[in-house]
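agent> call fold_tool(seq_1)
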Amino acid sequence: MPEPSAATVDRLLAHRAGAKRVAWAVAAAPEDVEDATQDAWVAFLERPPPSEDNPEGWFATVTRHAFLRRRRTAGRVARREAAVARRDERPATVDVVARAEAARRVAAAVLALDEPYRTALLLRYYDGLPPRDVAARTGAPVATVRTRLARGIARLRAALATRTGGRASYLAAVAPLWSPTSVPAPTTTPARLPISLGGSLVRLTSLVTNGATTAALTVLAVLLSAWSAWRVAGLASDVDDLARRPAPLATEDRAQEVAVASRPPPPLAPSPAGPPSPGAAAPPPAADQETRLRALQEELAATKALVDELVAERREAAIASAETGVIAAGRNVISAAAQLQASARIDVDRDGTGEFGGFLEMSGAVAGRMASPLNPPVLARAFRTLLATGEVERNGYLYRLYLPGPRGVGVAEPPTGFDLRDVDADLAETTWCLYAWPVAYGRTGRKTFFTNQGGDVLATDAPSYDGPGHGPAPDAAFRPLGRGTITGPAAIGADGNDGHPWKQVN
């Protein structure tokens, strides 16, 4: 191999910046620039340019070729790795069998439904027909079709849960259908489902080509979503559409629906005698009209029951969320009270030991027993306003804080904050307690909560604790040792002074 002359090497080194600019022009990443430049230098050392007339042009060409060669090699490697990965992703025989068995179970459940629910589900979710077209094929009003769909979904969900031994077994039985590697991406848009579905749910419709099984799998997507944290989503689109935004009906159907919804159908009087007007259609027999009105009334009653169930489920979810928020707020108050007491900003008896404060003092709303308002506050601004009854209202719950007065009797925080004369300074160095109960029992919450300086959160279910001014007494969650006082032990796992059991929730 001929050795490059010293002059050639010097000239190439003088143009190394230009070579890097060439590499930057063709490369996509900094590491590609360095690799292409190094390959060019190796090529120069192994095979020097035949002529020394234009070394910078030679270097630019070699650099460009080095990058293109690396890119082709990387592409081949990526394709080989992808092919190996696809082979690894092929489902095992046992997975295929499990999916087939799950599909059979769901298909059997769909086909076992009673009429008219089976036909309605197949036309809607297999043929992809909108409710108005299903109504045209079956000869039923659109409102009736939508109710049949909602009730059919509910019956299918119940049937699957019963056959497999409950919700958990049902989900386990159909779980093989959710294998992400078993479903190819669809080439056409599947029929619209009555709920909002993710990509994996939509791909379920292309698992098999058998008509009945495909329909069953489409309905299965609805059922699996219906078991989510907000189970009401499973029927939300079709049932809510019927309950809140009825689809346009024929004039006769709409008039009958309004009549049935507003009052029981009146007895049908016979048409007055006389010849029909020119061009008028002959009226249906009175018996047929009465039967149709009765059917509409039954369908509307069933729809109302479904809507009531949806409303109840949403209310339960809202109550659970509110009660979780109360526990979090209670822990925030525990932390804020500890911070204020440790700072000794409130020290009425001037013994160097801080005292606990109220909502208004901790949130910086008033100075209270301090020389000036707390800044920065240790509690959220939401606790800066008290109702006339002395509570803070927040997210469907009422919060009331007590500090010890003379002889340890609980004193509720007044709407303007605690006064020096309200609180026993020595006892306030170690004691406070908090209660939280629903603004409207059964609608915004059910449980009543308690916590104090000990950090324990207790709860009880007492319908009497309901609304402003109707919360627990100061000693309600304490053991019945000293009535009225809040300095004794809390009734953890026992009946309190109010006669209700208080259970620990943290």
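agent> call fold_tool(seq_2)
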Amino acid sequence: MSENSLLEPIHGITLKDYSAACAKLGNGLSEAAIAKALGVELPVWQCIKTRFFYLI
């Protein structure tokens, strides 16, 4: 376990995965498609997105 909570995955999604997903969102990919690509349900993706947003 890392001492930096920002580096800990949220629901199995790493900061690297999150940042890549945000880049895809910026390029027009839907949140539903992001969630599917990450292997999580849409509400889980929305939770992950919110939690990382407040960490950063």
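agent> summarizing second result for user.
Residues 42-55 form the longest helix (14 residues). The helical segments are 15-26, 31-38, 42-55.
agent> awaiting next instruction.
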